[in-house]
Structures are given as C-alpha cells and as structure tokens.
Amino acid sequence: IHATFIPLLDEQKNVTGGVIVLTDITELRKLETVRNDFVANVSHELRTPLTSMVGYLDTLLESNIEDPATRDKFLKIIKEETDRLSVLIKDLLNLSKIESQSFDLKADNLGEVLTKVVNLLEKKAEDKNIDLKIEIAANLPLVYMVREQIKQVMINLIDNAIKYTPAGGKVSINVEAEADKVYISVKDNGIGIPLSDQERIFERFYRVDKARSRALGGTGIGLSIVRNIIKQHGSDIQVKSREGAGSEFSFYLKAAE
Ligand code: ADP
C-alpha cells in the first residue's frame, strides 16, 4: 500500500483537515516483478548460446587445431548456436508484436487456414513417421479471427504435438461447431505433461524438460504466443494431458453466423 497525505487549508493557510489517499500497488509491483523476471530470462536465454559460441571461437583462434574434423565439429556447433539465437530473437519479436498490437477480428474461413497449416507440417510428420490426421465438420460456419495469428497458433500447437510425440505416434486435429462457437483441438499420443507443469507451460520460457526442448530446437515461447493470441480472440487455451499417454490442447473461436 502506498499512502499520500493531501492537507486541506483555510484562507489563512491553516491546516483544517486532510485527505489520505491509499493506493494499492500490489498489481503494479506484480507487473514490475514480471517485467524484471522477463528481462532476466531473456538475458539468460541469449547469453547461453553466446557463451558457448565465444568458448568455441576462442579455442579455434587460440589453439592451433590441426585436425580438420575437430575444426569442422566446432564450426558446426557455432553455426547451430547462431541458428538458435536467430530463432529465439524471431520468437521474441513475434511475441512482443502480438502483445502490443490491437486485433481486428474478421469473419473468415478456418478450414482454409487449417489445410494450409497441415500442408506445411505434413512433411515433418511424415519424416518422423507420425500419422497426422485432420477432421473438419461439414458446413463449418465462418469464425471471427485474425487469419495470420490463428495460422501461427495452429503451427505452434501441431509442431509441438509432432515434436513431443515419439516416432510412429499419432496427431489428430479436430474441428467442430456447437451453437455459436467453433471448437478446435490438437491431440497427440506423445510423452504428455506432468500435472504440476500444466499451468506453467504457457509462461514465457517455461519448459518441462529444458534439455529435451533445446535439443528439439525449442525456445519455450511457442505456447505463450498461443495463449496471447487466443486471449485476444476472447477465448482461452485449455490443456488436458497425462504423462506417457499424450496431450490435448483445445480452444474455441466465435462463429460469425
Ligand atoms: P518449446 O519451444 O520448448 O516447445 P513451448 O512454449 O511451445 O516451448 O512449450 C512449452 C513446453 O510445454 C515444452 O517445452 C514442453 O515441455 C511442453 N509441451 C508443449 N506441447 C507439448 C506436447 N504436445 N506434448 C508434451 N509436452 C508439450
């Protein structure tokens, strides 16, 4: 609580009373903490690949590595870390853009967006021998959305489903209409998410298993982008998951007819 005292004066400037203004700054403090945590997290995430790059570069420059295979190995690691940094920066810019821009929802065709996304990720699923299925109810109404943003949501969800499902698994996308809403779900039979992590996975940089996510090229930002976009569509994202059994992410969009 923050207190301010404002004295009330009469014509001779004598204090005759006063007003005490109490401001609850809990929310402000919270916001400040969130912002500080964010900056600390970003710095840490940026520094990790940089430290590793500097280490390998120093070794290359200072010691005379004769063996071309070792040199190539070091260069390859540096290249991987550079790629990682650029994905991270791209994700961060994307997130900040979504957080700052206002949304102009339009009645649009969801089926078209989904077909495009599935075409985009089909190869990735195929390469991992994952059965990627999409079921769209007939006569789906138009929905209120920002096409590019919903495309991003679907890419992130399906990409995760493929990433966190072992080879030979199944990913299914289901779309159905009920009353004035269209329900969308992405379900996999992959590694699942422990109950205690299920709320936290939507936080920026939160990953159940950092090493695994990192190895799969993850940054921990994908789901925070998803939640942000879905919230700006007046909805929210839900997760149902069981460790070792699989996960299902779902949300709805408002029908336009
Ligand atoms: P990342 O870049 O690490 O994939 P996300 O924000 O997309 O970041 O997801 C956060 C974390 O949630 C992941 O690191 C992973 O632990 C977990 N996760 C997301 N989707 C799934 C899924 N379909 N199955 C299992 N775990 C998942």
TrEMBL record:
Molecular function GO labels: ATP binding; phosphorelay response regulator activity; phosphorelay sensor kinase activity; protein kinase activator activity
Keywords: ATP-binding, Kinase, Membrane, Nucleotide-binding, Phosphoprotein, Transferase, Transmembrane, Transmembrane helix, Two-component regulatory system
Domain Histidine kinase: 41-257
Biological-process GO terms, alphabetical: osmosensory signaling via phosphorelay pathway
Protein name according to UniProt: histidine kinase
Location in or out of the cell: Membrane
Keyword RNA-binding: no
The keyword Nucleotide-binding is assigned to this record: yes
One of the record's GO cellular component terms: membrane
